[in-house]
Design goal:
alpha/beta; UDP-n-acetylglucosamine1-carboxyvinyl-transferase, Chain; four-stranded mixed sheet; 14 helices; globular; binds ligand EPZ; cell shape
C-alpha cells in the first residue's frame, strides 16, 4: 500500500487550485439516471470515489465518456464526463460495488423514480458511525414507494409511479435530501421537503436538476418544494468548488504559517468555518476567484467549535481543525454533533505528541509547543488529511499509512502541497 512521507517545518507559500467538490459530483453523476439524454458534467475531480461510482453506474447500463484534454488544460484541471442512461439494463446495485462507498446507495432514488423499482445493497463507506438509511427510506415511502429488506438489499418499488407527498426530516440529512429531491422530480404532483439540508452540494444538485427540466423551489433553505414533471432532459453542468478541500488547505496554512492563495473556489461556501479560522489569528481574505490565507509570526489562538449542518461548522473539517488546535495557545473544546464516532484521528494525533481528552462527543485539546513526526494511520478520509496537516507542522518525518483514504477525496494532494514548499512525497507500494 502507498505511504506518504512528510518532513514538517516548511511554511507554505504559493497558489493551490481547488478541485470540483467530490460530494457534489457524486449526486450529480447519480442524477444522470433520471434521463435518457446525456448529462455533461464539467469540473469533476479525479478521485477514487468518482471512478468507483462510474463503475456502479456502468453496471446499471449507463455509458460514460471522459472528454480529452483541451488547450490550456493541465492534468489537474477538472475533467468533463458525459453520462448517458438511455439503456439502463439493470436496476440492482450489488454489494461488492456499493459496500465501498456510501453515496452509491443514492442510486436507489432515480432508479425507483424512472423505472419503478430498485434493488440496492445496504451501504458501506467511511467508519465514522453507524450511519443508518432509515430517513432515506422514509422519504421514498412518503412518495408512495414500498420498501422491503431482502438478503442485505433494500428493494424499493412503486406500482404506478411515485406521487408527490410531505417529507419531514426529523434530523438534517444531506443524503436524505438528495434522495428526496431525485425521487420527487419525477413524481406525480407536488412534494414538500421540510427540514431539508442546506448544504451547497444540495443547491448544486437542485440547480442541475432544474436545468434538466425539474421544477424546484427553495433549495438552500429548510423548505424545498418540488413540482413533479413527467420527464427530464440532458444538460451541461459545472460542479461547484470543493469547500472541504478549500477549508483543509486553509487550515494547513494556518498551521504551518505562510501565505497561500486558494483559487477556483468561493469564500461563501465556507461561511462560519472561515470566520472561526480568522479568530485563530489567521488572515482570511476573499479574492476575485478564491481566498487568500496568511499567518505570520504570531501563534494560533485556541477557539471552541461545534459541528453543525450548513451553514454551521462542517463535520468534514472537524478533524483538520483539531489538528490546528493541537498547536494552539491554551485549551479548546471541539464538539462533534453529526456523527457519533468521528474521533478516530485523536489517537493518531496523540502519536505526534498532541494532548487531547475525549468526553463523549467532546474533545478537549490542550495546545502543545511542538509536535514530533511519527508513523500514523487513519481510518477515514478527513481523519487522514488531518494527519497530513499535523505532519506539515511537526518536527521530523511523519509517515501516513493507508493512503487510499486520501485518494478517495483529495486530488493531487502531494503535488498541490509540494508546489507550495511542503516536503511531501508518496512512496508507491
Ligand atoms: C454527507 O454524508 C457527506 N457525504 C459526508 O461527507 C458528510 O460528513 C455528511 O453529509 C454530513 O455533512 C457525501 O456527501 C457523499 P447525512 P451523508 O445523511 O449524506 C444521520 C466525507 O468525508 N442519518 O447528512 O451520509 C447520520 O447518521 C463524507 O466526504 C440518520 O440517522 O450524511 C448522521 O448522524 C463523510 N438516518 C446525520 O444523520 C438516515 O437515514 C447526518 O448524516 C440518514 C442519516
Amino acid at each position: 500500500m502507498d505511504r506518504i512521507h512528510i518532513v514538517g517545518g516548511a511554511k507554505l507559500h504559493g497558489v493551490i487550485p481547488i478541485s470540483g467538490a467530490k460530494n457534489a459530483a457524486l449526486p450529480l453523476m447519480i442524477a444522470s439516471l433520471l434521463t435518457g439524454e446525456t448529462l455533461e458534467l464539467a469540473n469533476v475531480p479525479r478521485l477514487a470515489d468518482i471512478t468507483a461510482l462510474l463503475r456502479i453506474l456502468g453496471n446499471h447500463g449507463v455509458d460514460h465518456m471522459v472528454v480529452g484534454k483541451r488547450p490550456g488544460q493541465t492534468t489537474e484541471t477538472g475533467q468533463t464526463i458525459r453520462l448517458t442512461a438511455s439503456n439502463v439494463i439493470d436496476t440492482t446495485a450489488p454489494y461488492d460495488l456499493v459496500s465501498t462507498m456510501r453515496a452509491s446507495f443514492w442510486v436507489i432514488a432515480p432508479l425507483l423514480a424512472r423505472f419503478g423499482e430498485a434493488r440496492v445493497s445496504m451501504p458501506g463507506g467511511c467508519a465514522i458511525g453507524t450511519r443508518p438509511v432509515d430517513l432515506l427510506l422514509m422519504a421514498m415511502e412518503q412518495l408512495g414507494a414500498t420498501i422491503e429488506i431482502d438478503g442485505g438489499y433494500v428493494v424499493a418499488r412503486t406500482k404506478n409511479g411515485l406521487r408527490g407527498g410531505e417529507i419531514h426530516f426529523p434530523k438534517v440529512t444531506v443524503g436524505g435530501t438528495h434522495v428526496a429531491l431525485m425521487a420527487a422530480v419525477l413524481a406525480n404532483g407536488t412534494t414538500v421537503i421540510e427540514n431539508a439540508a442546506r448544504e451547497p452540494e444540495v443547491v448544486d444538485l437542485a440547480a442541475c436538476l432544474t436545468k434538466m427540466g425539474a421544477r424546484i423551489q427553495g433549495a438552500g433553505t429548510p423548505r424545498i418544494v418540488v413540482e413533479g414533471v413527467s420527464r427530464l432532459n440532458g444538460t451541461r453542468h459545472e460542479v461547484l468548488p470543493d469547500r472541504i478541500e478549500t477549508g483543509t488547505y486553509a487550515m494547513a496554512v494556518a498551521m504551518t504559517g505562510g501565505d497561500v492563495t486558494l483559487e477556483n473556489t468561493r469564500a461563501d461556501l465556507l461561511h462560519s468555518a472561515l470566520d472561526i479560522l480568522a479568530t485563530t489569528g489567521t488572515e482570511v481574505t476573499p479574492t476575485a476567484d478564491g481566498i487568500r490565507v496568511r499567518r505570520n509570526g504570531a501563534g494560533v489562538a485556541a477557539v471552541d467549535v461545534t459541528t453543525d449542518p450548513f451553514p454551521g461548522f462542517p463535520t468534514d473539517l472537524q478533524a483538520q481543525f483539531m489538528a490546528l488546535m493541537t498547536r494552539a495557545r491554551g485549551q479548546s473544546h471541539i464538539r462533534e454533533t453529526i456523527f457519533e464516532n468521528r474521533f478516530m484521528h485523536v489517537q493518531e494525533l496523540a502519536r505526534l505528541g498532541a494532548r487531547i481528552r475525549l468526553e463523549g462527543d467532546l474533545a478537549v485539546v490542550e495546545g502543545v509547543d511542538r509536535l514530533k513526526g511519527a508513523p500514523v494511520m487513519a481510518t477515514d478520509l478527513r481523519a487522514s488529511v488531518s494527519l497530513v496537516i499535523a505532519g506539515l507542522a511537526a518536527e521530523g518525518e511523519t509517515i501516513i499509512n493507508r493512503v487510499y483514504h486520501l485518494d478517495r477525496g483529495f486530488e493531487a494532494l502531494e503535488a498541490k502541497l509540494g508546489r507550495c514548499g511542503a516536503e511531501i512525497r508518496r512512496e508507491r507500494a
